[in-house]
Write a structure and sequence with these properties.
With 157 residues, the protein is mainly beta. It has 1 helix and 10 strands.
Amino acid sequence: MSKNYWLLLEKSDETRISKGIDGYQDQTGESYRYDSLVPNHKNLAGGDFVVLRKENEILGVGEIAGISEVNDAKIHRRCPECRSTDIRERTTKQPKWKCGKCAHEFSEPEESIVEVRSYVGDHRRIHQIECTSLCERRQALRSSGCRRSVTTLNAPA
Ligand SMILES: [Zn+2]
């Protein structure tokens, strides 16, 4: 069986604009959390090779030691008008919330609990890498504008 190669994107809470779905509690260099709402979630496996990226920085490369799964629930907050989870919490203006999609303003988002399967990829074997060795790839990542949490880096067949 051939190994797969993945780009894992760790999002920091400070820079996330949309507040509709809670962030994952990633522990850099130790584990990577994702769930069944993420594209490709079924395809990651122990032994796969990963490049870990946080915002525009490459944090390291390594191998997934193993993946554990648990049942989990997530709170989704939605715009009451169009049901989008792309909603922004405002610090000064009232009402407190504004929809990023339809621009509707509201004081309380609609909340629902979504049952998901949660995965924790254990990649404690990840290595911090020299940025120089990845400069070209960094450039490519930066310009790709890819916002997916899990992206394949397999060479096209
Ligand atoms: Zn809306």
